[in-house]
Amino acid sequence: MTMHPVQLRVDRLVKSFSAHRALEDVSLEVGTGRFLVLLGPSGSGKTTLLRCLAGIERPDGGSIRLGGVTLTEGHTHLPPERRDLAMVFQDYALWPHMTATANVGYALRRRRLERAEADRRVAALLERVGLTARADRYPHQLSGGEQQRVALARALVAEPGLLLFDEPLSNLDADLRERLRVEIATLTRGSGATVVYITHDQAEAFALADEIGVLESGRLVQHGAPEDIYHRPASPFVARFTGLAGELTGRVEEPGEGGRVVVRTDAGPVTASAPTAPVRGAAVRVLVRPAAVTLDGGADPAPDAVEGTVVDTAYRGRGYDHVVELVGGARLVEVFTRHGRPRGSTVRLRFDPEGCFTFPEQAPTEADAQVPVNAAPMEVV
Ligand SMILES: Nc1ncnc2c1ncn2[C@@H]1O[C@H](COP(=O)(O)OP(=O)(O)OP(=O)(O)O)[C@@H](O)[C@H]1O
């Protein structure tokens, strides 16, 4: 899917644990220097896929190639240390008996470098992650954020072709998480390495990625640019997992032009995108992105606006998020405006068809059940 030469090629990867299929026929390609984020709920197979790439886990079938080298296929299975890659773990995984300098330098042990050159590279990396003053400390003398910076420096120092990240920010608190996220984004891109990064946090995924792969029950269900995933989710599962204001049910009134349909909902007619052209009268569900909802202001409401009641309002600094209940009972969260509307007031909403997706009505899948109800939908991208 990219113009970049393919660096990492995964073909039909399969992995089971006893009777449980953790990876089901996963194929993907990542271009040189691209940043791929694998996103999915707990148990979707993210860690298993990453561990197969690293060589810690041996797949049951399929192949993995990196820069023209076969890492795994049939009887071939290169051990982790013979793969041109480095991994950053959730729990840092530093050597407790080594200083920051020694931990970073350890990654160079196989590169027959002159001592002075190795020392120079380690010092340069520690400086880039802002740890020069902490170079002689042991892991237990460093904060979580500092330990993760050492791990980042250790991953980068040997200049591997592939960098793997296993939820590296999940043990840090919000403020630090944001700062380290920016450092990971800039330092990895500066290194030219190809990156595979796993997370279950959609906001983190969208902020970091050149490409996002969404995993559902061991299958890669969509792989594309963040904008594609946001504007053209392949399934209700993908749409839900990447942030919705809410869902409306109804019937197709007019199978309109250019992939648009008018859906008659309990709250009124809503124009929405239709990835698969539904027929007139079909029962459908309209999934609505937060960015697609606007509160209609003042005296001159649009004729196609839908009425609702403000149930809750939350001040967000830049403006207010509202929870709005529509006629028929559907609720929309994260309805944003600069100026807040009081609880209990009647408001009119407009929907941008670009951010409203029509799918045939069907019972939720097992994987949908893992998406937390009212998972904080992401900010407008
Ligand atoms: N060593 C193992 N033995 C048995 N089952 C396993 C093993 N490792 C993973 N699994 C199972 O495989 C499935 C995928 O697990 P995996 O850890 O890859 O998911 P994940 O998406 O990374 O989830 P999380 O975000 O919770 O880490 C899960 O159902 C898990 O229970």
Automatic annotation (TrEMBL):
Signal peptide positions (record): none
CDD domains: ABC_Carb_Solutes_like
Assigned keywords, A-Z: ATP-binding, Cell membrane, Ion transport, Iron, Iron transport, Membrane, Nucleotide-binding, Transport
InterPro entries: AAA+_ATPase (IPR003593), ABC_SmlMolc_Importer (IPR050093), ABC_transporter-like_ATP-bd (IPR003439), ABC_transporter-like_CS (IPR017871), ABC_transpr_FbpC (IPR015853), Mo/tungstate-bd_C_term_dom (IPR008995), P-loop_NTPase (IPR027417), Transp-assoc_OB_typ2 (IPR013611)
Molecular function terms from GO: ATP binding
SMART domains: AAA
Any Pfam family the entry gives: TOBE_2
Record bears the keyword Cell membrane: yes
Superkingdom: Bacteria
Residues in ABC transporter domain copies: 8-242
PANTHER family (alphabetical): SPERMIDINE/PUTRESCINE IMPORT ATP-BINDING PROTEIN POTA (PTHR42781), SPERMIDINE_PUTRESCINE IMPORT ATP-BINDING PROTEIN POTA (PTHR42781:SF4)
Protein name: ABC transporter ATP-binding protein
Organism per entry: Streptomyces silvisoli
